[in-house]
Amino acid sequence: MRRRYWPLTTIRSKRMSNHDRPLSPHISIYRWPITMVLSILHRVSGAALSVGFVVLVVWLFDAASGPETYAIFLSAMDTVIGKLALVGWTFAFFYHLSNGVRHLVWDSGRGFEKQQANRSSWLVLISAVALTAVFWWGAS
After folding, report:
1. CA distance readout (Å), 112 to 32, 109, 117, 118, 123
2. Residue 130 belongs to domain spanning
3. Is 76 domain-assigned?
4. How large is the average pLDDT for residues 99-108?
């Protein structure tokens, strides 16, 4: 008995034609809501904080290893890239903290209306920038 196989492309093209379906909006014409942007930024800041904690451990290790290795670490962090990384990790910390407070408010069942969520999003961003500025202004 001989089996007969149909070519997969023929069957698929007859059943799953894309010509009759509407296209979804492309990312270039879709405006991202602020809540979506902050959700992505929350995940990115969490990843950045993980890298920052590794740098913190290296700093502690170098501080315990002696003045020579600590001086090497300080010279690396005294560069423009090192300072930008420190400011970036500070912003990530304050942003993650502020957004965590917003999530605690959401856990109480408040702030889910669209207008309240948008306002709290801007408040999180402004507070993270302000806390970062105050931290670095006070440190210098």
Report:
1. 18, 7, 6, 9, 15
2. 32-139
3. yes
4. 96
